[in-house]
Amino acid sequence: MGQRVSISKIKDDTEYTIFEANNYLPFFWIFLLDYNTVWYNKEKVLESFYNENRDYYVCIKLNNKILTQNIKLGLEYFEINDTNDLKPKFKEFSDYILKITANDSIYLDIFSLCEFKGAEIFIEYLLNTLKKIENKEIVKEVQYCENNKHNFFGLVGYDDYSDVEYNFQNFSKEYEKLQIDEHKRLEKEKEKFLKESEKEKKRVKRDVIYGGLGSLFVVGISIAMIIIDGISFLAIISLIMGLLGLLFFFLLKE
After folding, report:
1. Considering only CA atoms, which of 145, 182, 181, 173 is closest in space to residue 89?
2. CB 11 within 8 A of CB 104
3. For a FRET experiment, which of 28, 127, 236, 245 has its CA 20 to 30 Å from that of 157?
4. What is the mean pLDDT of residues 40-56?
5. Cβ–Cβ < 8 Å for 9, 18
6. What is the pLDDT of residues 61-98, one digit of tens each?
7. Average pLDDT for 13-41
8. How many whole angstroms separate alpha carbon 120 and alpha carbon 46?
9. C-alpha dihedral, 28 to 32 to 35 to 39, nearest 10°
10. What share of the chain in percent tops pLDDT 70?
11. Would you say 249 and 211 are in contact if contact means Cβ atoms under 8 Å apart?
């Protein structure tokens, strides 16, 4: 079962998804957090994780003020440690987050990832990583994130199912192009799959027809044997096998 994570906001008692991902933590989401916020929520996360009757995970609420402070630390971090030219992408992502949270808070639903290695290990990873970010130390070990974290999807997640009025594709031309290319790739894969499926159906249909003809031939031979040589064990067995083959043919044909 996939572990879904998301960033959302609530307006007029309605939850709106902004980003989501499956089975990994988008790298830039870490920079929206801070050590104290994660530490403050630690006991709630652990209590929720070990509650057998839980039907939800604890979400971390971040208002615009906290986000502004954390994003500032993130920008300072990339100013010093940006060996992969991620700062422009992070700036674009963080500007978008601040824009859509100008008068709102966002909710990070990420603790389903505790299911992989346990809640304590995941929280400890977050705390250690956030402490390094605060100290401007390079984060070398990036667990829970996609292997190709330099891809925009690995950095921010997907906004395909975003139901906010102004999603990230409208904000970032690079991300929009990536989404278009991804949709084209998926469409080609779907088209290839449908062609292969159709080809396989034709092959199966052809094999069924050949099998039916073969069974009909066996029935004919068996009847001829009975007419010429009379009833024999071999002729009866051949006739039964041929009739069963024809029955199988008509069942598959349906």
Report:
1. 173
2. yes
3. 127
4. 80
5. yes
6. 999 999 999 999 999 998 888 767 888 999 999 999 99
7. 91
8. 7
9. -110
10. 72
11. yes
Contact 238, 221 (CB under 8 A): yes
Residue environment code for 113-125, b if the CB has 16+ CB neighbours within 10 A, otherwise e:
bbeeeebeebbeb
- Residue whose entry in the numeric block shows the structure tokens 């069942």: 251
Per the structure block, which two tokens stand in for 71?
């994003």
Distance in angstroms (rounded) separating the CA atoms of residues 129 and 13: 33
Tokens of 191: 């088209």
pTM summary value: 0.72
Q: Tell me, what's the pLDDT at 254? A: 56
* The pLDDT of residue 126: 93
Q: Write b or e for each residue in 17-29: b if 16 or more Cβ atoms lie within 10 A of its Cβ, otherwise e.
A: bbbbbeebbbbbb
- 3-state secondary structure string across the chain: CCCEEEEEEEECCEEEEEEEEECCCCHHHHHHCCHHHHHHHHHHHHHHHCCCCCCCCCCEEEEHHHHHHHHHHHHHHHHHHCCCCCHHHHHHHHHHHHHHCCCCEEEEECHHHHHHHCHHHHHHHHHHHHHHHHCCCCCCCCCCCCCCCCCHHHHHCECCCCCCCCCHHHHCHHHHHHHHHHHHHHHHHHHHHHHHHHHHHHHHHHHHHHHHHHHHHHHHHHHHHHHHHCCCHHHHHHHHHHHHHHHHHHHHHC
Q: Are 225 and 236 in contact (CB under 8 A)?
A: no
